[in-house]
Write a structure and sequence with these properties.
There is one protein chain. By secondary structure, this protein is α+β, with helices and mostly antiparallel strands. The protein folds into 2 domains: 97 residues, BirA Bifunctional Protein, domain 2; 95 residues, Ferrodoxin-fold anticodon-binding domain (Alpha-Beta Plaits), CATH 3.30.70. The protein has 6 helices and 8 strands; from the N terminus they run αβββαβααβαββαβ. The strands form 2 sheets. The chain has a 4-stranded antiparallel beta sheet with strand order 1-2-3-4. Helix 5 crosses helix 6. The model has no long low-confidence stretch (mean pLDDT 87). It is an enzyme of class 6 (ligase). It holds the Pfam family FDX-ACB. Its EC number is 6.1.1.20.
Length: 227
């Protein structure tokens, strides 16, 4: 019995260090007695998440008969199983476990990062319908700026759209490119998807934002509108 208590202490101490390493020392944790067929005593670890207790792992001291049949003799041990989805919910602030089975690109793209160390915080998805407007323009004459960079880049336009449209802009995509066969001038067409988090947008209010983007693109990026 004394050996079981020592193993239980080691189990809880080790797993507590694991989750506090992942989520911080201020994480609120509690242990709940439960039943698993191959461990006794058995526990579930729960953490405080968004005001409620959420289970993140199950564990327990391994049944001695199971250990004996595996060959380690009179040694004692413990086992645990992590719920990776639930750990990710805490780590990234994801409110609903069903999102992990979603094919929604708005969810999936949030976790495509170049640097694995880059912090990611889940951005909630809107349940309201999107509106999309296209914008086409001729690019400025191809020339380099004083620092040797192209005078227009796609990233310049993406940043401008975000700065003007703010949180109303969900996505910006280059959908078409055209080169005039005689003048060799190039034009691009972008699709901007607008969506509000808390209500349905009207085409009229989206149009006001879109027109501001058109004006800013001409004055700040030097493009010539085709609208």
């Amino acid at each position: 019995m004394e050996a079981v208590k020592l193993v239980e202490f080691d189990l809880k101490h080790t797993l507590t260090r694991l989750v506090t390493h992942l989520f911080g020392e201020d994480l609120e944790i509690r242990w709940v007695d439960c039943y698993f067929p191959f461990t006794h005593p058995s526990f579930e670890m729960e953490v405080r998440f968004q005001g409620d207790w959420m289970e993140v792992l199950g564990c327990g001291v391994m049944e001695q008969e199971l250990l004996n049949s595996a060959g380690p003799g009179n040694k004692a041990g413990w086992a645990f199983g992590l719920g990776l989805e639930r750990l990710a919910m805490v780590l990234y602030g994801i409110p609903d476990i069903r999102l992990f089975w979603s094919q929604d690109e708005r969810f999936l793209k949030q976790f495509r990062v170049q640097d694995i160390e880059q912090p990611v915080c889940f951005q909630a998805l809107s349940k309201y319908p999107p509106l999309h407007n296209d914008i086409s323009f001729w690019l400025p004459e191809s020339k380099e700026s004083e620092d040797g960079q192209e005078s227009f880049t796609e990233n310049d336009f993406y940043e401008l759209v975000r700065s003007v449209g703010g949180d109303l802009v969900e996505k910006v995509t280059l959908v078409d490119e055209f080169t005039h066969p005689k003048t060799r001038r190039r034009s691009q067409c972008y699709r901007i998807i607008y969506r509000h988090m808390e209500r349905t947008l009207s085409q009229q209010e989206v149009r006001l934002v879109h027109e501001q983007i058109e004006r800013s693109a001409q004055t700040e990026l030097g493009v010539q509108g085709r609208y």
